[in-house]
Amino acid sequence: MAKWFRSEPMEYISIIINEDASHDCLADLGKLGVMQFTDLNPDLTPFQRRYVSYVKRCDELERKIRYFSSEIDKFDLECASTGTVDQFLDSNNPHVSSTGEASNGKLLETLEVDLEVHESQLRELNSYSEKLTVEYNEKVELQEVYEKARYFFMTDAPRLASSEHMRFSFLTGVVSTEECIRFERMVFRTTRGNCYVRFAPIQQPITDPATGKLLEKSVFIVFYKSQAIEAKLKKICDAFQAHRYSIPDMDDATSVESMLTENAQDLVDSRTVLLKNQDTRYRLCQKISQHLERWSWIVLREKAIYHSLNMFKADVAGMLRGEGWVATENLLELREAVERAHSNMDMGMPSHVDHVPQPWPTPPTHFVTNKFTYAYQEFVNTYGIPRYREANPALFTAATFPFLFGVMYGDIGHGTFLFLAGIIGVWNEKKNEGVKHDELSEALHTARYMLLMMGFFAIYAGLIYNDCFSLGLNLLQSRWVFEGQDYGTVDEGAVASSTTDYGSDESVYPFGLDPIWHVTSNELLFFNSFKMKMSVIFGILQMFMGTCIRGLNAVYFGEKIDLFFEVLPMMVFSASLFVYMVILIFMKWTINWQERMLSATYKCPLNYGGSGDGCQPPNLITTLINIALAPGTVEEPMYFGQAYIQNILLLCAVASVPVLLLAKPYFISQQTHTPVHHHDEDLPLYTDDHDRSGGGGEEHDFSEVVIHQGIETIEFVLGMISNTASYLRLWALSLAHSELATVFWEKCMLSTLNMNSFVYCYFGFAVFAGVTTGVLLMMDVLECFLHALRLHWVEFQGKFYKADGVRFHPYSFKQVIKDSDN
């Protein structure tokens, strides 16, 4: 854990490699994934880079792979798995051509030939399939037109003739079913009602040759009497993309039957050819799917290599120079990989890996995490990346976040469900690793250990509260009893009696709160007092810890001015008012007030002053208010000299504010007469090719330092008050959770149990389970999670965390492939 406290020490190095061995060298470095390259050609556009042609070739290969993927999806085929990324990277033959020969040095050429052959075959088949589909659809539509028109002339046509010598012309075709109403309305308006339109739906959907989707279509027949109307009807058909078909005179039954038979035979032949084409495309896509994922990973790897090589600089012909960051512990491994790549190529010119003299660019921040710590590190990184070698809040968050969540969500029953969810996630982690999930499932898999700890601390807090689905558990025998409670005859307003002597060790419930509190009339008053004080204690201790971590950062970076004139005044201010409040709370809890009050039958012998002389329990809120508003006045003191001590603490708190405000700017101005560097806020900045003529730091004049320190002072002083109040959300959320659980139990279960009916109990339990799952196991978990998140991001991390670091992005094939899958 000490290693997780501060980021990995980084080295800025320079690599000089032979251009002929650059590809193999970068391939080995990509497998290691330990170096982040710096762009040494920032002035060049992407099209001016040395290896832009190779990147374009990779882009073209990616386009082809995307085309293959879309075609494979049309047949609902699954791509064959290449295995894990580690297995792919460890394989000696990264690509094997269709002829079975390893491509080795001509990887892109071999891959381009294979993909070009497959693409040309697939495009030719698709083009042919589209033509066949158009022809097949035309024959299907013509067959339907023949059949629907013949049926219409047999049934409805005789009604159209007003005399033996009058005959109407007609127009037939096929239009989309969803356009029928609009088509009929347009015909009616255009011809002023001088047409007779009939529709008949086609039972078999028609395949769209362009998209492959199935469309519902209908046959239409329009009767009219004028050639002018015929011209208008043809324009309307073109506008609605309706296919028009010419059919012979329906009176000649023999001719119509012959045409139907001939078209039906053509239809069978077209379908046979179409199915043959579809089968050929299916087999080709099936063959491609066996290699698609591997091809994709190879292209991603090659593209990453050439992108990285574009960051190198060619200072000498035949040699490339690159610079970047590497963790100190990986430097030897990196040097061995570079030398191995050159030795395998039998290069006469050796490689060179060396440190770059300072000043460096801003070092990136890198933490080595595992399955447990990864989620907490991402939790912190979402707010901001830690500075290089700054204290890592994730180390403390791993313990305090699930604990504060448990304080708000404390319930044995509900916590058990959350704990089991974490157990299931941990149990199935190997099964879920390497499997593509949706965004929610991936987040739950990543946070499986966090859920486990959240459930554990929720159970722990539930044991402290003695709360299980809003019910108290008498596991260790309550120390209080009501008269007649065994027979259910307790009267309203009855007073419980202790089963042991007051003040003895046996009178204290062994663990957590006595379950008797859940059935008392002053239950809410007691739990409110307990949880409110507990929230204040946890909040002040966590914020004070954050201030102490700020001091550790100042000591580590050698910032003496920050330590003595910023951190120490902050600690004095916090301890004088807020830590002292915590001490008073514990003192009030530990003092035997019954003994003190009994000793003051006539007069309190303690003589501490005030109205009670120390024998009456004080109101802590009044005591704390009087520290600032009535110095030297303590109505109900708890110890001798409390007023004097509180005056000293108030004086220390007030004196620390001007020190915090003015001391640091003054001493910074005394250090130099030139514009001063505000070291607490800025690290050296990157300049192209390092511009090593001087240190890179943002400069501030004295007025800016004073203004910044004034903002810092106001934010801290007011923040300590507001942040302490913010921690009361621990009490509020815990109270809301327990009260909701109580309402659900009483209204859903208890009321139905009193009805003495199995049916009512069955439905009551169903409602109880539903609202418990939806509200308490889902909504309330999210609510408590977000509030705990805010307490860490604002109240805790705000005391010391700068969050302006640069994340370490190593050149890693594994990460490139993982990002592409997401």
TrEMBL record:
Pfam families: V_ATPase_I. It is a multi-pass membrane protein. Keywords: Hydrogen ion transport, Ion transport, Membrane, Transmembrane, Transmembrane helix, Transport. This is V-type proton ATPase subunit a. GO terms for molecular function: ATPase binding; proton-transporting ATPase activity, rotational mechanism. It comes from Fragilariopsis cylindrus CCMP1102. Essential component of the vacuolar proton pump (V-ATPase), a multimeric enzyme that catalyzes the translocation of protons across the membranes. Required for assembly and activity of the V-ATPase. PANTHER family: V-TYPE PROTON ATPASE SUBUNIT A, VACUOLAR PROTON ATPASES. The keyword Transmembrane helix applies. It comes from the Eukaryota. GO terms for cellular component: vacuolar proton-transporting V-type ATPase, V0 domain. The chain crosses the membrane at residues 394-427, 447-465, 536-557, 563-587, 648-668, 757-779. Belongs to the V-ATPase 116 kDa subunit family. It is found in: Membrane. One of its GO terms (biological process) is vacuolar acidification.
